[in-house]
Each structure stands twice: as C-alpha cells, then as structure tokens.
Write a structure and sequence with these properties.
The chain is an all-alpha fold. It has twelve helices and two strands.
C-alpha cells in the first residue's frame, strides 16, 4: 500500500510527458503549415495558381520570369510511381518471407542487414546509384543512364527497409488463431500465409506503403544525383529521359534565390506538402471504408 502513491505519481508524470510530446509534435507540424502557407500562397496568387501548376517553363532569371512547375510535378509522380512498382512488391514479399518462411539462422543475418539499409545516408545511396545503377541502365536500356528509371530503381531500394520492417511487424501481430484456422481448413503453409495472414495484416501493410511513398516523393539528394536534372526544364516523356523533381528543384535553387524566385520555391514546397497530405488523407479514408 505504501508504494501505491509513488506508482500513481509516476503514472501522472508519464502521462504529462506523453501529452507534452504529442502536443510538441502537433505544434511542429502546425508551425510548418503556417510558414509554408504564409510564404507560399502569396506567390501562388501573384503568379496565378493555374499558371503556376500548369506552366511548362521555369525560368526565374529572365527579365520576365516564368514559374511553371508542371514538368517537376510530372517528374515527381513518375519517379514515385516507379519506386512503388519496384519497391512495394519486393518489400511486401520480403516481409512475408521474414515473418513466416525465413529460417532462424538466416533471420539473424537478414534482420540487421535490413535495419542497416534504413540507416544509410541518402548521399551514399546516390553515390551507389551514380557508380552502379547509372552505367547499368545506360548499357542495358540505352540513354545516358541519368534518368527516371535509374531514380525509380534507387528509390525502390531506399523504401524497402520501411516497407519490410512495418509489414513484418504487422504480419507477426496477426493472432495465431487465424493461421491455425487456415491450416485446420486444409490450407497449405504458403496459402495460409498469403491468403489468411497477409489480408489480416493489411492495415499495417498499407501503412508501410504510405510511409514508403512519403519517403520516395520527399527524397532529394539521391534523386538529384541520378535523375539527370536538366539546366533547361523539359517535360518528362519517357522513363529513360531525365527529370527534375519538386524537391530537387528547391535544393538546387533556394541557396541563390531571393524575392519572387524564393517565394516561388516555397510555393513549390506547398504543392509537395499538399501531395503528401492528400496521400495520407486518402489512406485514412480507405481505412475507414475497409474498416481496418
């Protein structure tokens, strides 16, 4: 009985700390939103929302500057879509293997290796892409190698640790009764894993995919090193052509930008923020619709 007041005090302190941490996270996101909107919306208004989003020329240094980001939007969507095509199937299948098929000795090697992939800096991935992937794509598919395809393969590799780790945890958290019930009904080990456990873990698997998409669309340094950023912006027309994404455009030009140019770059950040917010909102709506 004498220890109970002490335990209650610890619970109250822990509760206060958790509330403060949650509020700090919410405040940080709110401040970022306020900054982006205050700095970016006036630029969109001055340029014209339609001209800004649908313009195909970005020439801020001209006497009559042009701020059109449609090629960068298309480039970001192409690179992200390619990363999804490469990374999501491999990531989910790897998670199923790690959770239900991987022998214990091999698991002890693979798990730290996957965790190590998550800790590699983006610039190291970019250097790997320049040295290995760019020559491979150039010799195999043609072009100069600095292309959307190269960036997609590299980003697919970069999102693998996120997808594998979260999907594996989701699959392992599925009650064993579901797996055992599938076996009792005559399903094989493989069928029980893919037809019973994987659908039961779809909430966590979808969350891993959304986080992977957020990582892919927000990646900057690695994409800048391998995507073939053009000095003169062009509309991407194929996966073997180069592209400049929204994030790389901000990194390339923000250091020397001022005035309307700087405001237009911050407005580009607003568009990127809206993309990520839309993806998360769609995921939330899908979760409610599916009841997961």
């Amino acid at each position: 009985m004498g220890n109970r007041p002490l335990m209650l005090n610890k619970e109250i302190i822990a509760k206060i700390l958790f509330i403060i941490s949650a509020c700090a996270a919410i405040l940080a996101v709110g401040l970022i939103c306020v900054f982006l909107l205050m700095q970016g919306l006036p630029a969109m208004w001055d340029i014209g929302l339609f001209n800004f989003l649908s313009g195909t020329e970005w020439r801020p240094t001209w006497t009559e500057p042009l701020y059109g980001i449609l090629p960068m939007i298309v480039g970001s969507l192409y690179v992200t879509a390619g990363a999804i095509l490469f990374g999501v199937p491999i990531g989910i299948l790897s998670a199923v293997f790690m959770a239900k098929f991987c022998p214990r000795p091999l698991y002890k090697i693979l798990k730290p290796a996957i965790n190590l992939l998550a800790g590699i800096p983006s610039v190291v991935y970019g250097y790997f892409g320049m040295v290995v992937l760019v020559p491979f794509v150039r010799h195999t598919f043609g072009g100069n190698g600095n292309s959307i395809l190269t960036a997609s393969i590299l980003l697919g590799m970069m999102i693998l640790p996120t997808i594998i780790a979260i999907s594996e945890s989701a699959i392992r958290s599925v009650p064993k009764e579901i797996y055992e019930g599938a076996l009792a009904l005559g399903a094989s080990h493989e069928r029980a894993a893919f037809k019973a456990m994987l659908p039961a873990a779809k909430s966590g698997v979808m969350a891993s995919v959304i986080l992977g998409i957020g990582r892919a669309i927000g990646e900057t340094m690695a994409v800048r090193m391998v995507a073939g950023n053009q000095a003169v912006l062009r509309m991407p027309h194929e996966f073997l052509s180069g592209a400049r994404t929204l994030t790389t455009n901000v990194v390339l030009e923000l250091g020397d930008a001022y005035g309307d140019h700087r405001a237009a770059l911050i407005a580009t950040g607003v568009v990127l923020f809206v993309f990520i917010f839309t993806i998360n909102a769609l995921f939330s709506m899908l979760k409610k619709k599916e009841g997961i």
